[in-house]
């Protein structure tokens, strides 16, 4: 009996422990089931990646904190932070990316949750013109810290040698504009404004095309007139003895052209190609006598007969002449045009040597249909000289 009484408390303790553990396990199970049953199941999309989350979080903010997500000022989230979570809720969150946009010399920082550059530009109301230049492709995906350069085009006028054209450009200086337009300046050309000047909207860039060329010109020079006294001509009368001839000078000029128009001319050199020949004019000094008569002057050993005759002039190449250049006596007037007169042989025999006032020494070597009586026709070396001689009264001295 003593042995039995000693083991009884131990057995009773063991029986009591088993129910207590069972109860505790039951409570734990019930608590677990209750805990699991009170969870909320939601879908969360973080920066494009979707996952299903079971949580005891009460609000959207609690859930984001549980997921270790800090909601920034510029981030996008589909629900309010203090909104209570409910089963099957779909929460979308997108972190904003930082973008630095530089336009001209001004930079501005933006934050955006858009996916592409084009969507970002549209979101911010930033227009990109047809002629503007963007440093990235509009379809490029947005990345954090992205730097974008936007060069806005301006319209300017280029006046190249008088021809105007309007162009769009994003360049900064006049020099860059010319390079972009493939315009080359020559050494003498003028540019306004200078290459280093800034290009501004609606400005005009003017290029004056300058070139220098050599111009060769032949110019005629006048002949001088020399007058000589002739006592065989009546006083106050003049007669061309030798016709003048114009000279020829070659002049070289350096000509400056601006946009194709001459603006300056400088003489470089001149060369005489042909000298002019003076015109010789005989000026009469003889006093006019009141009476005209044939006289005979007698000296100690010689007798000189003087006749007053009507004189005209001709040239062998005249329209009414034969054109052969030969006189009635066969004398060649082409080769010997001076000192020949046509006479009436019954008055002055052919071959007679004479001195004709206003003409000079001559020989009677020709005749003519109209040369009758006291008339003579003096031969001149050219038709113009014959015309200049005209028709006049002269004194003819018979020398033999």
From TrEMBL:
Keyword terms of this UniProt record: Membrane, Signal, Transmembrane, Transmembrane helix
Transmembrane segments: 16-35
Molecular function via GO: hydrolase activity, hydrolyzing O-glycosyl compounds
GO biological process, alphabetically ordered: peptidoglycan turnover
Listed PROSITE patterns: G5
Domain G5: from-to ranges: 207-287
GO CC annotation terms, alphabetical: outer membrane
SUPFAM superfamilies referenced in this protein's UniProt entry, alphabetically: Barwin-like endoglucanases
Name of the protein: Uncharacterized protein YabE (DUF348 family)
Lineage: Bacteria, Bacillati, Bacillota, Bacilli, Bacillales
């Amino acid at each position: 009996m003593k042995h039995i009484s000693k083991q009884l408390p131990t057995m009773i303790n063991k029986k009591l422990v088993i129910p207590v553990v069972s109860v505790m396990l039951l409570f734990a199970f019930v608590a677990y089931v209750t805990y699991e049953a009170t969870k909320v199941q939601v879908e969360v999309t973080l920066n494009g990646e979707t996952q299903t989350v079971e949580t005891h979080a009460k609000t959207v903010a609690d859930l984001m904190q549980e997921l270790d997500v800090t909601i920034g000022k510029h981030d996008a989230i589909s629900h309010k932070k203090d909104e209570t979570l409910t089963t099957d809720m779909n929460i979308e969150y997108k972190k904003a990316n930082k973008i630095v946009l530089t336009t001209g010399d001004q930079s501005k920082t933006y934050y955006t949750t858009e996916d592409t550059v084009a969507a970002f530009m549209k979101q911010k109301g930033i227009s990109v013109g047809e002629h503007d230049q963007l440093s990235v492709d509009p379809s490029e995906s947005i990345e954090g810290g992205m730097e974008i350069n936007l060069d806005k085009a301006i319209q300017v006028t280029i006046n190249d040698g008088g021809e105007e054209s309007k162009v769009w450009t994003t360049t900064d200086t006049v020099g860059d504009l010319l390079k972009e337009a493939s315009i080359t300046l020559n050494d003498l050309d003028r540019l306004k404004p200078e290459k280093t000047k800034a290009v501004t909207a609606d400005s005009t860039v003017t290029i004056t095309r300058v070139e220098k060329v050599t111009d060769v010109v032949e110019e005629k020079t006048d002949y001088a007139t020399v007058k000589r006294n002739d006592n065989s001509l009546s006083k106050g009368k003049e007669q061309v003895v030798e016709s003048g001839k114009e000279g020829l000078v070659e002049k070289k000029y350096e000509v400056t052209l601006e946009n194709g128009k001459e603006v300056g001319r400088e003489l470089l050199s001149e060369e005489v190609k042909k000298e002019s020949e003076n015109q010789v004019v005989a000026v009469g000094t003889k006093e006019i006598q009141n009476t005209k008569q044939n006289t005979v002057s007698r000296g100690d050993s010689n007798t000189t007969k003087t006749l007053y005759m009507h004189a005209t002039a001709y040239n062998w190449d005249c329209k009414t002449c034969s054109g052969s250049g030969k006189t009635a006596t066969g004398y060649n007037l082409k080769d010997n045009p001076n000192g020949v007169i046509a006479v009436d042989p019954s008055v002055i025999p052919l071959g007679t040597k004479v001195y004709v006032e206003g003409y000079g020494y001559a020989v009677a070597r020709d005749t003519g249909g109209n040369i009758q009586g006291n008339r003579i026709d003096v031969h001149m070396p050219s038709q113009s000289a014959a015309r200049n001689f005209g028709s006049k009264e002269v004194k003819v001295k018979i020398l033999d």
